[in-house]
Amino acid sequence: MKIRTLIAMYACLLSIFIAYAYYYQQDISRIRSLQDEISSLHGKPDEKYVMVTFQSGMDYWKRCLKGFEDAAESLNVSVEYRGATQYDVNEQVTVLEQVIARKPAGIAISAINPTTLTKTINKAVEEGIPVVLFDSNASGSKAFSFLGTNNYSAGVTAAHEMAKLLKSEGKVAVITSPHQLNHQERTRGFVETIYQKYPRMQVVAVKNGKGDALASKQAAMEVLNDYPDVRGIFATEANGGVGMAEAVAELNKKYVKLISFDTEKQTLDLVKEGAIAATLAQGTWNMGYWSLQFLFHLHHHLTSPSRSGDALLPAYVDTGITVVTRDNVDHFYAK
Q: Which H helix or E strand runs over 65?
């Protein structure tokens, strides 16, 4: 009887040991799998990704680049910043061609023109270089994703904000960059919302500020001289906001309400002073950070670049918008 009991105890202990060994091995396998997954999210320092912009010295790009660099640090890869120095599509095409020739691991580009860059973007993709667009799209290209503001929605937000400032009545104008898709969408969102929602408001002019403070100042002065009863102006980019603020000050029409775009220091200072009533802040750090994450996953084949299947990167990511006024402007200065 004692022998049978002893055998039963040994059998039980052996079963426990086998079960423990099995689950221990399972845990080890899971840990190794997790380690492999983590190591797959680390590249090499000589693995280089390039961000390409235009008017490359603008403060606006600094937060985009910071996000790009932060992602690079977490992934143990290198990044480079390139761009057209001027608002010149031909210069940006040249810069992009030079970048492609160096065969980087991936390219994130903000397109100055939605159609002119398409051929060169497609060339990069066809040569096996992952490309994503951020901030300004080229929707007809073969780039894998676009990360940026829902620009039509941003224009809608600007229209509602202007209506609030003007108590839903009065003439307004827009200063924009009409050849750039993101500005076209902002303008359309603003104009259509004013027309559809605010019958006592009227958009009397849409002017080309050429992405330049001086040209935008001239455009604003033309608006204010041609339409002396204009009560508000919306600029779809930061230089436009600076230019229209200078025009309003020079003509001593401080009653005209101004809404700008982006959070360069000069724009924020004008908001703080009250010269600009509000500006719209984009999620620029998100644009840079997630652009590099997407490129890394594409380069390492961690997701499918095709338009079918399960492991896809989204074709579009809305990186968000925030209305900045005197009440919250201090939170948007670069730290």
A: helix 60-75
How high does pLDDT run on average in the chain? 89
DSSP state of 52: E
Domain spanning 151-282: CATH superfamily: Response regulator (3.40.50.2300)
Calpha distance 172→202 (Å, rounded): 6
- End-to-end CA, the chain: 80
Stated pTM of the model: 0.74
Give residue 98's region: left, alpha or beta (phi > 0; psi -120 to 50): alpha
Residue 210's contacts (CB-CB under 8 Å, 6 or more residues apart) are 87, 177, 216
- The residues, any chain, with a CB within 8 Å of residue 185's CB and separated by 6 or more, are 151, 152, 154, 155
According to CATH, the topology of domain 48-149+284-320 is Rossmann fold (3.40.50)
Determine the 3-state secondary structure of 119 from DSSP.
Answer: helix
- In the block, residue with structure tokens 């061609």: 97
Question: Is 48-149+284-320's fold the same as 151-282's?
Answer: yes
| CA angle (224, 225, 227) in 5-degree steps | 65
pLDDT tens-digit series, residues 49-108: 999 999 999 888 999 999 999 999 999 999 999 999 998 999 999 999 999 999 999 999
User: Please, are residues 285 and 269 in contact by the beta-carbon 8 Å criterion?
Assistant: no
Residue 304 DSSP class: B
The DSSP output letter for 312 is B
Say how far apart CA 238 and CA 253 lie, in whole Å.
20
Tell me how far apart the alpha carbons of residues 169 and 167 are, in angstroms, rounded to a whole number.
Answer: 6
Q: Which of 113, 110, 192, 196 is nearest to 152 (CA)?
A: 192
